[in-house]
Design a protein that fits this description.
Length: 457
Amino acid sequence: MPPQSLSSTAQRSDGLAKVFRNVGVLLTGKAINAPLSLVHISLAIHLLGSFDFGLIAMMYAFARMMGDVVDFQSWQVILHYGLRPLTQQNRHGFQRIIGFSLFLDTVSGLLGCGLGVAIALLGMNALGWPSQIHGIGAVYCISILFMTTATPTGLLRVFDRFDLLAMQGTTATVVRVIGTSILFFTGASVTALAIVWMLAEAAAWTLLFGFAYRELHRRDLLRSFIGNFRHTIRDILTGAFGRQHPGIWHFAWSTNFSSTLALTFGHVGTLMVGALLGPADAGYYRIASQIAAGIAKPVTLVQTTLYPEMARMWREKATKKLYRMAAQVALAGGLVGTLLLLAAFFASNPLITLITGNAHTHAVPVMLWLLAAEIVSVWGLPLEPILFTTHKSGAATFARVLETVFFLPLLFVMIRWYGLNGVGPATLCAVTVLIAIQLVMVLTSRTQPVSGRESAA
C-alpha cells in the first residue's frame, strides 16, 4: 500500500461531532471489554476466593501506581508539540517529537520497574503483603515495563485511529479471560493468576506498538527515523532539545505530576484499603471500583477524544469554539452519567451478586459511592483538558495538589472510622473539591492563543 500523505491525517470536521464519533468507535471495544472484564473477575473470585483475589488486586495496584508515578504522559507531548510539524508535513520535526516521547517512555519504564522491585522487596510489610506473595509480588513489578505506552497511544490519537485503540483496549482482558479459564483445568493459584495478568500486559503492549509502527509506515514517517532518533537523544542529553522546543520539559513534568496525583483515586485507594483492612477488602474495593468505572466508561471516554480536537482548535485560534464544545460535552456527559447512576442504583445488587456471590453486601455500597464520584467528575470532564490545552498546566497541577492534600488524610480517617464503607464518601468529597477548583481556574483564566485572530466559530 503506498504511503499516505501527511496532510491526510489532518482532515477537518466539526469538533463536537468528531469527538462523539470517536467515542462511538471506542465504545465498540468497550462493549466487548466490559462484559469480559466482569467474566474474568467472576472466574478469578470463584477460583481463588475474595482473599486471594485481593492479593492480586494489591499487586496490580502497586505495579500500576509505580508505572503511573514515573509515566510522563508523553502522548500529550505528541499532541501538543507534534501536531504542527505533522500537519505541515515536516517529517524531521515530527520524528524528533516522537523520539523525545520514546526517550521519556523508556526512562520511565526502566525507572518504574527498578523502583517497584526494590520497594516490593524492602517494603512489603508496609504494603500489607502477606508472606505468600513476597516473591511473586516483586516479580510482578516487571510488568511495569509494559505499562509505558504513551508514545504509541499518542500516535494513534493524533492519526485519528481510535478504531485501533478500541481493538487494542480489549487485548489484556481477552488474555486474562483465556488464561483464567485455562487455570480451571490446570489448577489455580495466586502465582499462576499473577503470571496470566503479566502476560496480558505484555500482549497489550506488543499489539499497541505494532499498530503504531504500522501507521507510521503507512504515512512514510519511518524513513531516516533511526538516525533522527539518535540525534534527538544526543540533543536531549546535551540540553539542546529543550532550547529548540521551549517549554516542552515543563509541559512533560507538569503532565507527569498531574497524572501522578490523579492516580490517588484508583490504585492508592486499593493499596490503602489493603494495608489497613486486609486483602479481602482490597478485593471488594477493586471489584466495586472496576464496576463503577465500567458503568461510567461510555461517558468518560469522551475525555480521551477531547484532547486532539482541543489541541487542533487551540492551534487554529478557535477559542470560542473550543469553550463552546467543552460546555456541550459537559452538559451531555453529565446528563447521561446521572441517568447511568440512577440505573445502577436498581441494578447493582443483582449484578454484583452474579459476579461475586455473597460478596455483594461488601461491594455494593462502595460501588454506588464510587460511581457517584465518577459522575461528578463527568460533569467536569472538559476542565482539565482545557487547562492543559490552553497552556495552564501549572493550574491543573495545583488543583490536583489541593485535591490530594484533602483526599489522602480524609481517606485514612474515613477508613479508620467506617472501614470499607468510608472509602466512597471520601472519594466523592475529594472529586467534588477538585471539580470546583478546576471550574474556578477555567473561569478566571480564559485566554486566547498569543497571536492571530480566532477562526470563525
